[in-house]
Specification:
The chain has 198 residues and is mainly alpha-helical. It has one domain (15-195). 72% of the residues lie in helices and 8% in strands. It contains six helices and three strands, in the order αααβββααα. It has helices at 3-9, 18-40, 42-57, 93-109, 114-180, 184-195; strands at residues 65-68, 71-76, 80-85. Strands 1-2-3 form a three-stranded antiparallel sheet, with helices on one face.
């Protein structure tokens, strides 16, 4: 089937009204402003990450886990207490912010549905945040199990880095999949075009 036949049966694009375009720009700018706000208040965001981590990791780690500011405290063998700091290099904010920028650009410069773009960002951001939480928990577990020399090195520098890359890649793929997946109406139009082909 040629491109000409596809275009023959394609529905014309409905122009975006100025009011809707303005609304989409406001949504995109609001998303960018939200990311900027979180970066300005990154300490509070990292503190929240430490509290969330301690809430679910506490019953899974020997001696428990306690949050303190941007740190989470874990006991090593021999009752040695170590404080892991969630730095700017380790925070989920660093992974989520590019997803917010891409979503904002989609809202401002493409025809992707506003609700779809927002939902795509929300889902991808949540998945990325959860995976980063698991990464931090893994670092705590490997350090407690195998010590600072080996456990921390393999958990943070090797496995943790791979998980961070995987978290961003998965979040980005989820964002693209939700925003670019054809809806039922588009599929119906293409099916109608195929049936009407001479």
């Amino acid at each position: 089937m040629s491109i000409a036949i596809n275009r023959r049966f394609a529905a014309p694009l409905t122009p975006i009204s100025p009011a809707l375009r303005t609304f989409r720009w406001l949504l995109g700018l609001g998303l960018l402003a939200g990311v900027a706000f979180l970066f300005v208040n990154a300490t509070e965001f990292r503190t929240t990450e430490a509290r969330v981590l301690a809430s679910w990791l506490n019953p899974l780690i020997n001696g428990g886990v306690r949050p303190h500011d941007t740190h989470f405290l874990v006991y090593l063998p021999g009752h040695q207490l170590i404080a892991f700091d969630i730095t700017m290099e380790c925070t989920a904010l660093l992974l989520v912010s590019p997803l917010a920028v891409v979503s904002a650009l989609m809202l401002m410069f493409t025809r992707v549905g506003s609700l779809r773009a927002i939902c795509a960002f929300a889902v991808s951001a949540i998945v990325t945040f959860v995976i980063n939480q698991l990464r931090l928990g893994l670092i705590a577990w490997t350090t407690q199990t195998w010590g600072m020399d080996f456990g921390y090195a393999i958990g943070h520098r090797f496995i943790g880095s791979l998980i961070a890359l995987a978290a961003f890649a998965l979040g980005f793929l989820i964002l693209l999949w939700i925003t670019l997946k054809p809806n039922k109406r588009s599929k119906a139009r293409r099916s109608a075009g195929h049936r009407r082909q001479p």
